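Notes to self, LysM domain-containing protein:
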Amino acid sequence: MPLTYDVPVALHAAPPAHVQPGRAHAQFVKGAAESSPAAEKKPTRKVKNVTIRPGDSVYAIARTHSSSVAAIVKANPNIEFRRLVPGTVLKVPVPASAPKATKPVKKQPVKKPSKATSAKPVKKPAAKPAKKPTKKAVRHTKSVTVRPGDSLYTLTQRHHASLASVIKANPGLDARRLHVGSQVKIPVAGVTSAAKPAKKPTTKPARKPTSKAHAGGYAPKPTHVVKYAGTSAARRYPASAVASGDRHRQQLAQANLPNQAQIRSMIVATSKRYGVDPTLALAIGWQESGHRQSAVSVCDALGTMQVMPATGRWAGDLAGRKLNLMDPQDNITAGVVTLRFLTQHANNRDEVIGSYYQGLGAVRKHGFYPDTRQYVSSVKAHMKRFGG
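result:
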């Protein structure tokens, strides 16, 4: 489309500051004092200088050094995080080493009873009554009729199912074109009426998942949502775009969104559907958002593929339908169909990657900008990581 030919698909930004990598802060425990019980000491943090390497993003640096995106942004107020240049030194707040615990107070030895003392017979514990058999949770499939405005994602939210289970239960389903009135099988949880007695527990019980994301559920919600309006980072962009980005960021932070593993599966499936190299789409999605639908840039580039609203409308023409960039599947579709268009019209792979960031028209007119060359290098590094 001529109106969007020179518009970059996404103004690159590292995953936003509200994205938490999911690591718990280290707890530092001080040993017992002579006259008072052990008191818990709050964790201290120190700052470490980290030199940016090709392929780095603020999200990857935060994960590597057990820090958070918010802490890095706060420690580097003059750094433009949407354009990380190799060789730049970042200040990264990292947990300080735990203080050494004091030696515990020695216990007084317990005197053994003398032989003359008559030992009382030890009573055997009474046998506990057998536990009643508990009901075992099972899953059954429920047929759901698609209504106007439904998407695969909204159906999973409404019926408390995961995207992975719905996709598995409907192998021939075209998730991007749900026809009103069609039937979709939704696996839902249930309880059997006649459950078998519970088996004896093993020596080591299985570990419980640490979060819903690990259990195949929703992505963890951010604990802090950044607002860019009125900050130095927002000066280069229209106030309306910054305000829209702040609003969308807040909405996505409150939504139940697919976790990273589910996002990757959706990218691969959508890429194969449109004939795009999955490793290329995975690398672009990782560079743009870290495979997080909650990511929103300062200038309102949205979701996993960081698609600008104007580009999303153009991508809807390519897909043959209106795309909602707030919906995870539609957001991925917008990015993938744009990659298909660029693959068909660009001269080589590097030009495809650079045009996703800079715009095909601008690349042909001006060549790669310095930050575009860095973007291409980073995406190619991510492609090797994903098997490309």
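- Residues 328-345 form the longest helix (18 residues).
- The domain at 137-191 is CATH 3.10.350.10 (Membrane-bound Lytic Murein Transglycosylase D; Chain A).
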